[in-house]
């Protein structure tokens, strides 16, 4: 059986990445692609790399007959996303890639995103989409909220450690190095090749990055107490990739073994041998996340480094993984492609 | 039925690319991976991006039981390749990715490569592996010689034009822009990031690049007379891609229509609308070749631009496409993945 | 004596490059920096790399007292530039970096730029700013029109050959590879890091690039007859640099010697040994232009390759070189810095 | 008066950078350039970007008449450096760029570098070359040991804080992002463009990087007790730059003011406004170091970010700054050039 898929917000990078992935999926077919401002254009005009595919032209959301759709990916900006999803049929399966349904507390949402939430019913219903940790809920969900790409990376390196209580909860530092596609296809001066190439810098320093809302919610829930990490992202001159370097206090061997056990049966989370650390180049274009642990020369301090592709495992790959669960497909279907190297 | 595959020279970029592609192929399984100097290592050590795959460790060629192999990819350096292939079972299907069996004339081989050919029987038997133009021969072949990556690109933009006689044969210029992986995983100063990034230059200028041997052989055979093109490659700070800008003399509309007709039913060759030209970014990681034609402001001059990924369509993807034919598989099997963008 | 300098359009890349260069000039001081939309900001806010300099804040053009200015660099967009310059004091020395005064024929200007020229008196007075070929005129000029960066590169490799009559005038091909800063600090999708990095393509193919107006004007004047070259620019994933590969028909030795003689005493034009070709990486950040000549394997065909930095020798460095002449300074003053490598 | 300069190890990146800088120095002239394996070649062959300069050919060290040299830069690999310097005239002023004379304790040297020190007298005499903190000693020194480029960056962000006692000495994390030229012109697989571009990773994780020897020595001396920081370098796909993100515990305002006071009169150390952080792109090719401080959302935690160019302020620029002091020149002479942006 072939599932009919709609993608809203198909003219952005995560939309294009969804198309790329679904193209390899044996049991999904793309029935509708919406992009309000580019409605009427062919996908090949907007993304020439998809020229070979037989795809519907871009349309407006209002033109889609959702009764013919089995699952809808929503790759719209936050705020727009809730406004659209609020009005979609309540029986439609939805994987949202925006930030709108990640935070369960409406006040926290408003604090981090600056606007009040206007789809509170959907918000309450939404399941947090970090597949490896919410698998059963996702399987049963109608609306799944894809995580932030930084939020996913940070949680993969830290969640099992917080759950197991093997690290000091008051002293966690996440230094993250993010490739530029995470900022989307947006026309900003600092995203220009001439500005970014050959240079790199921190941004949203000091605890102001919105993905902290997710870290706070998830880590505090795991620990049963407030956990606030320090998180500093850096913009790196590369197109895809997130590298999270986590500095934690605890026994390095316990840290390693905790992660090893947690991810033993996970198809997409690959633990490196103790003492090795990953590269973003080795996960690019794939749904894999590589994690390594090293003991610092200072006792009871460990460095945990995780790498994933922000557009795949950090976003559209995660979304497809969740959609597989929601549609009763094998979870890894269409997602086992090897990374592109070099 | 699953075909058992061996890859000789698995520690280079084309070897890794073969593994990446075969991983998606439903009817092939990798039975042996050879790399003389790295024998004994796991593939994950040599190429960490393949860590998630269940692959045999690297071995020596002499350790492979070729009676258990259905098809062997040979991704060794030229000269080594002929020495190895000479001693393989004469019943073994082989796709060679080196330069050793591309030229049918042993003198031409020695002229361009500097060493005499020592596997003349195999050389006579070998079929030139430009799939779209040697499809029937390849289907029946035991030994297929993969083309040079530049040679493939140049032929895709020019072969139909030379066959149809719509361009001046004495005035063809191929200005090519090549990404760095075409030079292989070799430790040379000019391939260092610090030397290549942020700079670009021509190389092998003046008609000294070895792929000219292929152009001369193929174009002259098509035309029934000697055809010598001018070919200047340039090294560009990117990892994958070849962009060929061909300057030809002839009616631009005829040029376009000739190419359009020639590639009408080709799954991997995509003609752009007249007046548009392709980008390497839109074919990266895929087996597609995009071709565009533009009329110059000067009458009867056309510019034909072709783009492909040197490691995929220019090398390992082509090899797999040929292997599919040799094994009776669907030609496009395992090769329809969309490009990686961005 | 210190010359007081104003820069109009100081918030763009050529404006910033002028500041960088003038900072090293012993006899110039920056008295005014104008940028209409950013007036009131400090230069450090707009270009943090200039933070260490003691510079005036950005102002509006109308706020500048031009009676206190010895020379004004005008780095505004074309069309705006003529409107501004038309209203500047007629005694003010001006180096314009826009396209507005490059073409001597008003019809040609309108043909290539789409708008009628509205400062015809200034246009008639303007001297074309390719220093090495208009040195005496520039020394005496009040208004100098900086050349296009591609136009400069193409002329350096071709002018002496056209003057000397050593090449076929009807068969000249200029294949150019341009770095992204040539497009300015403009927010366009194809200039984003995510779109440009790892990909490259041709643009303005077929004789539509505006710098052809300059080639036509200059080459035809040199030859005493109409000369139309073919010119195809390509956008390369690098920040600075232009590489021009010129395909010409003529005796390669004569071609080389003609260039060697022409540039024998030029401080900024460096001829490589016969058979060698340059890299943009070796001129980056400098006012040098490297030129090489290679004989093709086909008789009487030569390839001439030139490299320069579009922002320096192609634009702001050229402008300063001209300003030195106009102000009676040593021509090379402030311009002999070595390229930045790596 | 013009000082005659020799550079030993002129075929590496720091050697070339010294030549680039000295070219702009009004009172220095390059009298000898040594590179053992490339002796006999011209500098233009080894570094074509220096082609325009009138430089002596590369020679062997043994061919230099050191009685004619006023100051010698030694840009050799560690271990080689001490063997060479041991045999130079004891009256010759030397700035060493290797690691050989950075550590005052011979056992520490052997611990970090694996070989015993064989020039102990010179080692005792050497002055540590972090100019801003050893200015008077350097002025009087005969032999100055240039710092590690990471070591310099880390010390600029931390020294004043450790001296002033405003941060917790037991909990300092230095997460560093390093461009590739810091690894030198060495042929290693991970330095290839194809391996590094589009990917990034940590290296020397866990307290194994040799520059920790310098941190331990300097920070412990400042504090009067043992101070061990955590230091994790990351390799970034860029050619020049080091970005140090320091996580410290202390009052952010005190942290900022301490740094502001410390660097108030330093020409090369630029403090950004509180709350802003620097980019490597804004110091590239210059001798400047930009430093910013941000308060974390967690109380009493500050993030200090420093950026410099590893080849200039981190190495050859520092060396020239020290040479200026040793020769009685103005400290900033030849070093005030603006960064290259973009």
From TrEMBL, chains A, B, C, D:
Pfam families: Semialdhyde_dh, Semialdhyde_dhC_1. The keyword Cytoplasm applies. GO terms for molecular function: N-acetyl-gamma-glutamyl-phosphate reductase activity; NAD binding; NADP+ binding. It is an enzyme of class 1 (oxidoreductase). One of its GO terms (biological process) is L-arginine biosynthetic process. Its main location: cytoplasm. Belongs to the NAGSA dehydrogenase family. Type 1 subfamily. It is found in: Cytoplasm. One of its GO terms (cellular component) is cytoplasm. It catalyses: N-acetyl-L-glutamate 5-semialdehyde + phosphate + NADP(+) = N-acetyl-L-glutamyl 5-phosphate + NADPH + H(+). The active site is at residue 149. This is N-acetyl-gamma-glutamyl-phosphate reductase. Keywords: Amino-acid biosynthesis, Arginine biosynthesis, Cytoplasm, NADP, Oxidoreductase.
């Amino acid at each position: 059986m072939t599932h009919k898929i709609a993608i809203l917000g198909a003219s952005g990078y995560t939309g294009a990445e969804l198309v790329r992935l679904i193209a390899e999926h044996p049991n999904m077919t793309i029935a509708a692609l919406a992009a309000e401002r580019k409605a009427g254009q062919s996908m090949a005009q907007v993304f020439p790399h998809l020229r070979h595919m037989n795809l519907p032209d871009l349309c407006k959301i209002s033109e889609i007959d959702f009764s013919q759709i089995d699952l809808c990916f929503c790759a719209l900006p936050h705020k727009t996303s809730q406004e659209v999803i609020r009005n979609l049929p309540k029986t439609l399966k939805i994987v949202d890639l925006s930030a709108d349904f990640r935070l369960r507390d409406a006040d926290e949402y408003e604090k981090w995103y600056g606007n009040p939430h206007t789809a509170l019913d959907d918000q309450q219903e939404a399941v947090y989409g970090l597949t490896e940790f919410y698998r059963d809920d996702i399987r049963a969900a109608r609306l799944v909220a894809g995580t932030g790409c930084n939020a996913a990376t940070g949680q993969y390196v830290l969640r099992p450690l917080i759950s197991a209580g093997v690290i000091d909860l008051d002293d966690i530092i996440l230094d993250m190095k993010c490739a530029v596609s995470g900022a989307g296809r947006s026309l900003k001066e600092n995203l220009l090749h001439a500005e970014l190439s050959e240079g790199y810098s921190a941004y949203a320093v000091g605890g102001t990055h919105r993905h902290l809302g997710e870290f706070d919610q998830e880590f505090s829930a795991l620990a049963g107490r407030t956990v606030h990490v320090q998180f500093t992202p850096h913009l790196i001159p590369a197109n895809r990739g997130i590298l999270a370097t986590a500095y934690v206090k605890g026994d390095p061997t316990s840290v390693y073994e905790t992660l090893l056990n947690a991810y033993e049966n996970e198809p997409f989370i690959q633990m490196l041998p103790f003492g090795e650390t990953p590269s973003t180049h080795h996960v690019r274009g794939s749904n894999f996340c590589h994690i390594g642990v090293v003991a610092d020369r200072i006792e009871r301090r460990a460095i945990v480094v995780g790498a994933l592709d922000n557009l795949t495992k950090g976003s559209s790959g995660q979304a497809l993984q969740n959609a597989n669960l929601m549609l009763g497909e094998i979870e890894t279907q269409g997602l086992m492609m090897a990374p592109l190297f070099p």
